[in-house]
Amino acid sequence: MPRALPSHVEEQGALDTCAVAELLEVLWSSNQETAVGPVPPSQLRALTVIEQRAGINLRDLGEALGSAPPAVSRLCDRLEAAGLLQRSRGRINRREVELTLSRRGSAVLAETRALRAHKAAEVLRRMSSQDRHALAQGLAAFRDAATTHIRLGAFPDRDEPLPDTG
Fold it and tell me: Residues 6 or more apart from 119 whose CB is under 8 A from it?
C-alpha cells in the first residue's frame, strides 16, 4: 500500500495539476476546429462520457457531468442536431433514453484526440527521455484514479450505495 504523502505535497500536486490543465486548454484551444467545426469543451466532455458508457441515460450523464437535467437535455439536443449523438429507447427500461455516439461523433472525438496528441507531442519533444517516462507513469496513475473517481469505467449498481471517494 502506498505511503500517504504529506499534505503540502498533495496540495502542491493539486496546484501543479490545475496549472498543467490550464496550459493544456491554452495549447489545445488553437485546435478546436474539427470536421464539424469548433466543438465546445462541454460537448467534448459529454461525448467522452457517452463513448465510455455507451447506452448511458440522461440522468447518469448529468451526474457524470455535474449538470442539471434541463441543461443535459439541451446539451444532448445540440449534440443530436450536430449529428454527433443518437438517442434510442432504453432496452431495459423503455421509458428511459439511451445515448450513444453516432459515427460522426466517434470521428469527431478521434480527430480531436489526434490534434491534441500532435500538440502534446510537440511539447513532449522538448523534454528528456527520462522526464517523458516519469510523466507517462504519473499520468497513467492519474488517469486510473480520475476514471475511478468519476466512475467512467462501469455503470454503478443502482441497488448499492456509491463508494465514498473522498
Answer: 27, 28, 30, 31
Specify whether the CB–CB gap between 108 and 35 falls below 8 A: yes
Question: In Å, how far are 26, 83, 91, 134 from 45, measured between CA atoms?
Answer: 17, 16, 24, 27
Q: How far apart are CA 13 and CA 17, in angstroms?
A: 6
Residue 26: all three cell numbers together? 491554452
pTM summary value = 0.72
**Tell me, what's the pLDDT at 160?**
40
Each residue's pLDDT tens digit, 40-99: 888 999 999 999 988 899 999 999 899 999 999 999 999 999 999 999 887 777 778 899
- What φ, ψ does residue 34 adopt, rounded to 5°? -125, -170
pLDDT class for 164, splitting at 50, 70, 90?
A: very low
**Residue written as cell 457524470?**
64
3-state secondary structure of 126: coil
Alpha-carbon distance of 57 to 98, in angstroms, equals 5
Q: What are the grid coordinates assigned to 105, written together?
A: 461523433
